[in-house]
Amino acid sequence: QVQLVESGGGLVQPGGSLRLSCTSSGSTLNNILIGWFRQAPGKEREAIACISSSDGSTHYTDSAKGRFTISRDTAKNAVYLQMNDLEPEDTGVYYCATDDGTVCARLHPVVFDIWGQGTQVTVSL
Questions:
Q1: Nearest residue to 4 (alpha-carbon basis) of 111, 119, 117
Q2: What is the 8-class DSSP label of residue 111?
Q3: CB 34 within 8 A of CB 98
Q4: pLDDT value for 72
Q5: Which parts of 25-60 are beta strand (E)?
Q6: What is the per-residue pLDDT across 59-79, written as a single tens digit (0 to 9) for each?
Q7: Number of CB atoms found within 10 A of residue 41's CB
Q8: What is the pLDDT of residues 79-95, one digit of tens each?
Q9: Closest CA to 37 of 85, 103, 98, 124
Q10: C-alpha dihedral, 42 to 116 to 101 to 99, nearest 10°
């Protein structure tokens, strides 16, 4: 079973940018879909974006608001979430996840059963 590892979180000021990475220790990500999710304090985990492996198509929820971009680098065995113009409301723990499938059919946490440990993103002055 693939193991996912997130990195790239941190403290950033409003309006700033971060790029989160999702990698795997010992397994390839290139043949599976990867979704990004976040969980703010006291709130349910919500979906942000997903990238399919079948055709590289990307899918976003309203939470992405046109400020986030998901991408894949097959040479580096990584999936990224570029986050721009960050707002305090973007604060939370960000997770990458997969269901071992190849197509992002349904972007909801209940569909995904393999999760990383998460990386904290804090947007604050």
A1: 117
A2: G
A3: yes
A4: 97
A5: 34-39, 46-51, 58-60
A6: 999 988 799 999 999 999 999
A7: 7
A8: 999 999 999 999 999 99
A9: 98
A10: -50
